[in-house]
Each structure stands twice: as C-alpha cells, then as structure tokens.
Amino acid sequence: MSDKNYPLLKTFYMKINSTLSLAIIILLIFFIHPFVTWFVADDYIYMKEVQAEGVFKRMWQDYLNWDGRCIGLTYPFSRFGLWLGRYWFGPLLGSVLMMLSSFIIIKSSNLYHTTIGLLKNTTLVVALLWLASFNFSSQTLYWTTGISYQVDVILLLLSYYLIQKFDNSIWQYIISVPLFFYAGTVSPGAVLALFSVVLIDFLSKKFNNKALNIKPYILFFICSVIGLLVVVLSPGNASRLTGLDAANLTHIWTVYFNVKRIFSQLFEYNTAIIWMLITVGLIVSYFNVNLPSASSKKQRLFLFLDSQKWLIAAFVTVLFFIPMPSFNSPRTNIHFVYFSVFYAVRSLGLVLLNNKPFYESKLFLNVFKLISVIFIVIASTQLFDARYVQKQMVARDIYLRTQKGEAVIFTSENIVRPSQTRRFEDVSNDTSYWLNKGVANYYGLKYIKGLKDKNDN
Q1: 206-215 long-range Cβ contacts below 8 angstroms, 24+ apart
Q2: DSSP code of residue 419
Q3: Smallest Cα–Cα separation from 70: which of 236, 189, 229?
Q4: Phi and psi dihedrals of 241, rounded to 5?
Q5: Spatial distance between the Cα atoms of 72 and 261, rounded to a whole number of angstroms
Q6: Vertex 32, ends 27 and 37: CA angle to 5°?
C-alpha cells in the first residue's frame, strides 16, 4: 500500500469506525438485556396452563373463552418461552423482532446507501425505539407475555413492506396470503391503523398518476379483513366484552371524557423523545411536500395525506379505544410509538433520498453520537439495576420449588426490592389477590403472602 493512499484510507476508516463501534456497543447492551429478566405477573398463570396442556391446545381454549387474538401468531410466539420455562427466551425473541422492525423501517425509508449504512441506521432506530418506549419496555420487551406486541408490529410492518415491493411473483403470493391474514389477527386498533396507511397510499398513487399495482392492495384487504373478523367475532371476545358499557358513545359528554382520558394517557405513557420525533417529522414533511406541483385539489389533498399517513395511523391506534378507554394500556401504546418513529424516519428518508448519503454527513454523525450516548447511559443503568432483581427472583424460584404443598409467607427481609427502572409488581399481603393465586398455583403452594414483617406472628 502506497503512502500516498494511506491518509485517505485512514480518514475513511476513522469516520466509519467511530459510529460502527458505537453501533456494536448499542447492540451488545441491547441483546444482553433479555438475560437479566424474570418471570412476572400473569407469566405464572399462562406458564402453568401451557406447560400442563401444551401451547396449541391452550391457544384454542383461550380463543374460545378469552380473546380472539389468541388465534394469531402472537399467542404461540409469546407462550413458547413460558412452555420452555426459560425467562430469557421471550425477551430475546422480542429484542430480535425489534431489531427486524428497525431494519424494515430503514429499508422502507431508503435511509441507507451501503451495508454499513444500513447496519448503523438500523441500530440508531433500535436505540430510538427503545428510548421512546422506555416507560413500558418492561411490559412489551422484557415481559415474556408482553412480547406479543412486538409480534404485532413485525407482522404489520412486513405486510406494508411486501405491498410496496410486490412484483406478482408466485412466491410473493404464497407468502402474502398467510402474512396478511395474520396481520389482521393482531390488536384491532393497530390493524385499523395499518388499513388507514394502505388506503391513503393506494389513493395517493391513484390520484397522482403514479405506478400502481392494485393486486397486493386487494389481496391485503381481503386477507387481513378475514383475519380481523376471525378475531372480532370470536367467542372469547363476545364473553370478554359483555361488561362493556354500550352507552359509552351515546352522549356527547361521555365521548368528551373518553377522548380526554385517551389523550391524557398519551402524555402519561410516552417519553419526551416521541414528541420530539413527531415534531421533527412535522417540520421535515412541511418543507418536503410539494403541493403546488399537484394539478387539482384532490391531488394536493392526497399528497398531504400521504406525507402524514404514519402519524395519522399512530393516532388511529388510540382512537380505537374511545368506546372502551379501560382497555387502553401502556402495552397497547407500543403501536403508537412504532408508527410515530416510522413517521419521523420516513419523513427524513423522503428528503434525503437524492442527497448525499446521510450516514456520511456531519449531521448524522453528531445525531448518532448523541443518541448513542443517551442510550448507552440509560440502558447500562437499567442493566445494572435489573441484575439485582433478577438474582433475587431466580433465588426465590429455587426456594419456592422446595415448598410444594406449604403456605409461604415472605417477610420484609426476603421480599424483592422493586426495580427502579422497570415496572415491577410483586406478590401482595392478600392471599386472594390474582397474582398471589397465580404464583401459588404454579408452584403448588397452599397460598403465598408477601410484605409481612419478620416480627409479626
């Protein structure tokens, strides 16, 4: 190698290597997290059921008696780790799915020009998603039962990606039919949100004379609507919704209070990062949409809607809960987060598509470093804190397995300290509490009771 070329190669190496090193550190920390988790809450209830009856037999029973979504892929994915009895399996699967979701977001947004750029930008989106969903990541990423929401997201994003890349080949038809069907069986609010995205996408192309392959749209709506109906019309949903107040939408004041509750929960569940990303997306899309180029009002309308479709979808996910606000939870908010992040990233992708490769720009390097440092500091803190709780929960598991047939009463000395950085619900001092009963049933105890002081009789 000549001395003449060495400085140029050295500069290129340093530019690539600095962000690549940060990406590798992020991935290492991200994928260590699943191994410092623990079984919690209704994991014990479902673990007992699937280990006694098998995943698929229990899946059918729950479809008939509990929730129509149990017929979809979310159920076996979230229950398989419980069937194995491995606390790390579900969270590891959830982490892989989040990584795949980030990959799809970058691929769909065209925010890369090389394999290294794809890797780094995917890692950046992983960090953003993790930080944006920090308030409830313990319920959607590090809780074995809750990783079903990660399955939701990957099915929805894969469906959208396949529609965009559809070329009428036989293998795409073979893949798309089950994929679109199972996308329809996920959380109904998220399904309706994706419907809005696909419909706006279709109408925008149609009225702006863009190349349009109608076949994947028709196939998507047919298969996903069938999947949605299989869920909504299930016997389990019929019994689950018997307590729903039918008057929730019959009076303007009831609607007002429901809407107020739903939108107040948005601010409760979401971190500041998600609002910053939405603001960035709004600013970027405002300057990027070339409305004057459209020749009619209808074309201008759909150009605007197309630029905002993922933000619209994010709000559709929560509007679904207006008739039943009690069903909205931090877990379901994961759909709002993903669609909002996709909105911001895709807005940037539309602007930078024909510009200098974004991963080479100074702006990207500075943003990448800032987000990387924030992620590394927060994730490392959580990792350190979670290690303590996991160690205590594993020790408790070993102890409770030796107490079959006994009544277990924890004292203040052996109750597990609540995690400071994750939502954590432990057994209470009420033996009839659902969590106490679930834990007692799983370990074969007479009952279990916590929070009793060691000096009590």
Answers
A1: 207/296, 207/298, 207/299, 207/302, 208/294, 208/299, 208/302, 208/303, 213/166, 213/167, 213/168, 215/166, 215/168
A2: P
A3: 236
A4: -95, 10
A5: 29
A6: 135
Cβ of 277: how many Cβ atoms within 10 Å? 23
CA–CA dist 241, 403 (Å, integer): 38
Coarse DSSP helix, strand, coil percentages of the chain, rounded to the nearest 5 percent: 75, 0, 25
Contact predicate 196/240, CB 8 Å: no
447 forms beta bridges with 407
- Residue 91 contacts residue 39 (beta carbons within 8 Å): no
Q: Per-residue pLDDT for the chain (457 aa), expressed as one digit of tens each?
A: 444 555 554 554 455 467 888 999 999 999 999 999 999 888 999 999 999 999 999 999 999 988 889 999 999 999 999 999 999 999 999 999 999 999 999 988 877 777 888 888 899 999 999 999 998 999 899 999 999 999 999 999 999 999 998 988 999 999 999 999 999 999 999 999 999 999 999 988 888 777 788 999 999 999 999 999 999 999 988 777 665 656 666 777 788 888 888 989 999 999 999 999 999 889 888 776 665 555 677 777 777 888 899 999 999 999 888 888 878 888 899 999 999 999 998 888 776 655 555 556 677 778 888 999 999 999 999 998 888 888 888 888 998 999 999 999 887 666 677 677 777 778 888 888 988 999 999 999 999 987 654 444 4
Q: At residue 433, what is the residue type?
A: Y
* Residues whose CB falls within 8 Å of the CB of residue 437, separated by 6 or more in sequence, listed in order: 431, 447
- In total, the chain counts a number of residues equal to 457
Helix (H, G, I), strand (E, B) or coil at 244: coil
3-state secondary structure at position 448: strand
Compute the distance between CA of residue 184 and CA of residue 181 in angstroms, rounded to an integer: 5
Alpha helices in 37-169 (DSSP H): 43-53, 55-65, 74-84, 89-109, 115-132, 137-140, 148-165
Evaluate whether 122 touches 267 at the Cβ level (below 8 Å). no
Q: What residue spans of 187-234 are helical by DSSP H? A: 188-207, 214-232
- 279 C-beta neighbours (distance < 10 Å), count: 11
β-strand partners of 409 = 449
Exposure class string for 24-63: b at 16+ Cβ within 10 A, else e: ebbbebbeebbebbbbbbbbbbbbbbbbeeebeebbeebb
What predicted TM-score, i.e. pTM, was given to this entire model?
0.88
Q: For residue 403, how many C-alpha atoms fall within 13 Å in the half-sphere facing its CB?
A: 19
Name which of 241, 228, 148, 147 is nearest 191 in CA terms.
228
